[in-house]
Give the backbone structure.
Amino acid sequence: IQSQKVLSMESFCIPVIVELNKLTQTNDIFQEIVRQLHTEAHIAKNFLKSGEILLLLDGNDEIQDINKKKIASQNIEKMLDDYPKLRIFLTDRFEVSNPPVMSKNTLISFETLSLENKKKIIEKCCSDISVCELILNRMKENPAYFTWFDTPLKILNLVELASKEHVLPSALIESYLEL
């Protein structure tokens, strides 16, 4: 039923998630797309040519072998050459690995939050002035405490817990260290 709905739509996008670190030399990205779509190669090619596939490539930083990383990068480049309408979203933690060198890609980098941006998030989401001052004073005294609060969600968790307890929780940082 879902397939019939998709096919009857004028415009649609089929997301395909490929974990790059799990590909083998005999199973490349295209073969993984065919496998996930449960279809024949020529049908998958038609979807790729028309731009109806959104290819989500996960874990580029998890490819440890440099030769495998080069092969994956070449494979991605070839797909972009063969299918100009193909949309690819590639995840890679630059702190962990060197990003692939791909000439045709648009790079969107999600940087670590600066201390100033963390401060703005705290000021915006903390409704209790005394808790906000508590957090911001701690930030001035010990900026290292805020190293582990590297995403807006973690900062919101900190504000929420500090608002309930009126103290800054050390257990929250310990839970992030365990991750």
Notes: Helices lie at 2-8, 29-37, 41-50, 66-82, 115-125, 129-141, 152-165, 170-178.
